[in-house]
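Residues determine shape. Take a concrete instance:
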Amino acid sequence: MEMYFRQQAEAFLNRKEPLRPFRPFPRAREREKYEALPARLRKKLVAMGEECLGFSYPPIRATDFMAFQRRGNRTDYEDLYFERRHALNSLVVAECTEGSGRFLDDIINGIFALCEESAWQLPAHNSYERDAAQNILPDAARPILDLFACETGAQLACIHYLLEEELDKVCPHITKRIRRELETRIFLPYLQEHFWWMGRDGEPMCNWTPWCTQNVLFAVFLCAASHTAPACLTEQSGENCRTVLKKAAASCDCFLKDYGEDGCCDEGAQYYRHAGLCLDGAAEVLNRVTGGAFARLLLSDKIRNMAAYIFNVHVEDKYYFNFSDCSPIAGRAGVREYLFGKRTGQPSLMQFAAEDFRAAGEDIFSDESHRLNLFYRMQAVFCYEEVMTFDPGIRPEHKDIYYPSVGLFLVRDSSLCLAVKAGDNNDSHNHNDTGSITLYKNGRPVLADIGVESYTQKTFSPRRYEIWTMQSGYHNLPVIEGLEQHEGEAYCARDVEVHPASSTISMELAGAYPLAEAGHPDISYVRKVAFDKEHSRILLTDTTNSQNVVLNFITYDRPKITEPDSDPESAASSRQSSGFPAPLSQPAGFGPGRRHALEIGDARMDYQGAELMEIETLPITDKRLQTAWDHDLYRIRLRMTDRVFRLKIC
């Protein structure tokens, strides 16, 4: 394993240099800094706090925690848990902005509400080993560091850093309580225990590693920079802070080892914000407290590629190419993406992030990441003017790209944007989607990737693939001999060939299906997708020796049947003019090759070698899916009637 971060940490520690204080933004008492913020922004931040004045922090009962084990329900607990944190953050930012003291009582109520929770981890993460069964209730004497325990630690440390003096004027026991809870729930567990996401040897990591690591670093070094730091951070001349630095650097390397040099996030655009962006957040803390010891790492090709990924998978406006558990609406880019571009020396990424930030305006402070993470919100406040006015005089342009580490092929022109997913069925947050395609026309979905429903106990269990959105039948893929794809690294695309000059990718898909186990070891299924840029159209050709294939296509707009050509000579002429090759000789039992057509929004889909079985409505009733789709989706089902299926979309 390459040791990018660990080597830099060891080199710094060997020099015996002192750690610098971590002061990423002004404290509340630095009034001139807050008063210098744009008036419109100050008004928005105060208004968000005023909405939470007198907020009644909802009680969280033991039975709410137990609901996950008893009913597989995550939302009963999580809705209450996150509501508390969202309100507290709004109150803190408003108090820092206004400086009047009128939000302090509600802030103190929030601090004590969080400190009096029996545990900060979510019920779905209440176990001490990776992938182990969750305990029905937490052990308050043995804290677990999961994603949201670390988020809560960073939140309270940020409040302590921002409002230490103001809270002490009310009562010094408030900040004393924060320090005690952080010491027992975050700092000592981090120093004394090994949680799986910290990384060890070759164990695969995911977004948990940088996400948790970043927030632990926020908590540790914000507290260490306060007037009164917890004892565990000051004893032995701060040696524990140096241990945290070394341990965090090692975790960053454990995360990086699972990335290809191309920088592709196999969890998708939505999870990039918790993966690559959190790595950048962790690196920024490490860099500041060491006086720049980690800066050059961010200019390495691998990390620069990781940063650029989010722009490369952007389609238009709110849409992103998505796969796995990622939503097509992955959230606006903003200050974090801008800073990642700045630190990796990529003005085009900075410009993309700045334009997206400006498109959201002050509403960016209402998105989920800013609502939950107080550090992100404060970072955005004090970078607001820089990002709003950034203009390097260039227009970021998307380029065609192939990510071999994940098998993701992205091509586009001024009208069409196409993604083809090769790879395997072992991605983090995996769906069985090898070979699936996603298509947009004029910034509007044509062929869609549905995404994932609200998380439940089943989502991350052995029964995951009972969930319909995970199954290949609900992606733009065939069902072969009655079989859908199987999960696992062995179930993958083979013989993948990419030809950038012709914007073409082809692959053998049979290996993604359990065909051999079902007694069909000799079946082949080759998918070829070409982007004909001269005529702005997509040409898909599927070739197989199976006589039992049903093709599925998921559409955003309801498909409308267009009358097929009835005259054979006219059909042949249409095939030639539409770019279809002449029909191949047909095996026994296959019907005549005939062209059919469907209209999907403002796109037209012509196909040959299959007959329409049905157009099925897919009701979008789940709360999480409704954030991505504003109406039902549709599934076209076609039965192959030839050994070659040809599709054109323009």
In short: The CA atoms of residues 158 and 375 lie 7 Å apart. The domain at 401-649 is CATH 2.70.98.70 (Beta-galactosidase; Chain A, domain 5). Residues 565-592 have pLDDT under 50 and may be disordered. The longest strand covers residues 610-618.
